[in-house]
Amino acid sequence: MSRPLAAIAIACVSGLGWLATPSAQQAQTPVFRARTSTVAVTASVKRGNNVVTNLTAADFVVTDNGVAQTVEAVAIESVPVDVTLFLDTSGSTAGKFDEMKDDVQAIIKLLRPGDKFRLLTIGDSVYESVPWVNAGATVDVSFRAVGGISLVQDALMFGLLHRVDPVRRHLVVGMTDRQDCGSVISSTQLFELAGRSEAVMHLVDYSGGGGETRYRVRTCSPRARPGGVATIEQAAARTGGGLQTQSRFMRASAIVRAFRTIFDDFRQSYVLRYSPNGVETRGWHAISVSVPKVKDATIRARQGYYGDGEGK
Amino acid sequence: MRQMPRAGFQVVTLLTLAVATVAADQRPRQPEQKPPTLAELGPLNAPRLLDQYLAGRFDDAVQTVRAAGDDAARKLRQQWALFVPAWIDTDEPHRAQRILAAAAFALETENLRAERGDWAQTTPDLCAGQCVVTWAYSLFEQRGKADDTEHAWLMAAISLAEGVRDWRYLHRYVAPPAVNTRPRPGTGPPPVRGLIDIALDRFPKDPALRLHQAMAAASRFSVTVEGGRLTVDPFAPVVASTNVMVTGPNGRPQMALMPRYESRDETIELFRSVQDDPAVGAEARVRLGYFLWAIDQDAAARTELTAAANAARDADIRYLAHFLLGWTALNSKDLKEAGTELARALEARPGSQSATLALAAVQLQQGEGANAYDLAEASLSKADDDPWRLFLYGHHPKLVTRIADLRRRVQR
Asked: How many CB atoms lie within 10 A of CB A245?
């Protein structure tokens, strides 16, 4: 585990604001023991479209590089969340900018007291269009269409690069067609670096019907690598997130609907913590999470982490 | 460098010429058409708009064209050659200023077309962006001796063409014997020589023009993919050959295919010719360094980029040189070298995004995530006009200021 990851995990387990919901507390009293290397895994458990609730530590089977681990705590997520929303404001979506402004405001209203929000957009650079604000804040957003470059990967990288307070969680939601052009961070680097982030990154397929772009003078250069779209999706899966597709016929406010779905799932997910036993500390650690007692469960969790000493 | 097999080139050329000649012979003769009237090419009225523009009501004139819509703006393109010469001639004492106004406004209207994605390719039947800009430049010959105003217009026109990445319009590799034709709008073949090639007749050895000529030559190779180079499959076949103009048996220019490595050598020579110039030399070295890296000559690329970093007096050029040294090292997984060069880039331009992201990637891989987070959040919180972002679009970011400069000159 990387140093910052370890630091975050340690701070979490000495946890000032770490709370479990009443139902979880009834099921199992959380016990957190500080260790020098604690791994935190956010896991979403669903059966069909329904979130599976009231699971305890005993219900989970977690392996680290194939070695079964003792999960020390399970808590339904009720901690405050830092939400990074990335809106792909490249030329192809220029026709929806007015709707996007309303959607951003609606999303901020979905957050709960204690949550924080920021908005990233793209043009000739990645812009922090709304710096960190508290839930419920009123924001003034404006978008400007540019042609040519589409810095999707750089924006997602900036999204992941956030120092999270130990008692909080970080959710990154990217509304994008994943068609990159001109990013410094390649799709393969994004995939690699996603394995070093504690954030959970979800993508929502947001494309089509972009309307007229007023500025299309530039054409794309350099081109995205073939397969880059799939690699970006794999990067999201690596963090425990995924890609949500939606009908091309939906209007832009599908942004709010998609965000609500992701956010609700995230808030009802579990945090599993363990101190790795019986595995080498260095290198990539593949994590597997299962819930044997729930048949046909769909579990979404980070796919692994880099251990201490990696690359130091 | 490899030389193109002469026999192979001749075969390709002859085949191309044969097909073109047969096609030309079979083309039915067009009956002569009566030129359209101004009213038929309305609702826009070029002479009236030029009166506004010359009077300093620049935004009004431009906004009128913008608001008129695509069809009207396309019809305006046909008005230039038909009606603007008469407008220029109506005030002989101020002829030079009227020529400048016409050329500047034509350029601005083509910028509007480009914003609408309508730069388009000029063909014998369609006078589009290239055609209008070439016509506008032809006016300067009537204006008199080449001067700094003509140079300013040229730099603006080059910025626009670089934005749409129409590199062949700016510079064509012409196989000898060279040909020189300058079509009027709506007539004749597309320009055979590039705009810069023609401009160099009036500004011989001008360093800025020669830099852009080299950039245009190099950019024909810029089919790079993210973090990669043109040799990466499946793009390699794209650069296997290039179109060149040759003089056909009937004395007319014809297209022929030739392998790209000949013009690759030409590109390097073009950069070398200005690399020691005090004004543009450092940028030439940065762009040559990137070009060499893109064609797999890593050691030579590093030499040029290092020289550029040492020679650069401009912070942007120094940033670009160090960024490219660091970024290419990152892509070859040399984290130590990458970290050093990217940190130097950020000394030149603190907080700039490209170097910030690349350095953060290095730090994350080195297990120094806390530093990466701080670096990224500090960068996001400030406005940035990172010169790497639009590096492959030449000087297009300067178009706005160059048009503003032209407007000032029109008002003098």
From this structure: 11
Could you tell me the two tokens for A284?
A: 């990539």
| Residue B38 neighbours by CB distance under 10 Å | 14
Strand bridging mode A200-205 / A243-244 = parallel
In whole angstroms, give the CA distance from residue B259 to residue B240: 6
- C-alpha radius of gyration, chain A, whole number: 19
Contacts of B194 (CB under 8 A, 6+ apart): B168, B169, B170, B171, B172, B213, B216
The residue in chain A having the minimum alpha-carbon distance to the alpha carbon of residue B375 is A161
Could you state, in chain order, the average pLDDT of each consecutive group of 10 residues for chain A (312 residues)?
A: 38 32 36 54 87 88 94 69 90 69 88 92 90 89 72 95 85 89 90 89 75 53 74 93 73 75 87 88 89 90 76 32
**Predicted model pTM:** 0.81
Chain A interface test: which of B111, B160, B357 (most A C-beta within 10 Å): B357
Beta bridge partners of A61: A290
Reference B271, options B253, B254, B291, B252; nearest CA is B291
Q: Output the furthest CA–CA distance in chain A (Å, rounded).
A: 61
Strand partners for A43: A270, A301
What six digits make up the tokens of A10? Answer: 């340690």
**ipTM score assigned to the predicted complex:** 0.81
Nearest of B406, B388, B409 to residue B397 by alpha carbon: B388
Chain centre to alpha carbon of residue A9 = 17
Report how far residue B238's alpha carbon sits from residue B55's, in angstroms, rounded to the nearest whole number: 48
Q: Which residues contact B103 (CB under 8 A, 6 or more apart)?
A: B136, B137, B139, B140, B153
Q: Do A222 and B222 touch (CB under 8 A)?
A: yes
Gap between the Cα atoms of B329 and B343, Å rounded: 13
A chain contacts of residue B381, beta-carbon cutoff 8 Å: 128, 131
> Would you state the structure tokens that stand for residue A15, as one six-digit string?
């946890």
Tell me which residue of A255, A270, A256 sits closest to A200, measured CA to CA.
Answer: A270
Q: Which residues of A touch B366 (CB under 8 A)?
A: 311-312
- B229, pLDDT greater than 60: yes
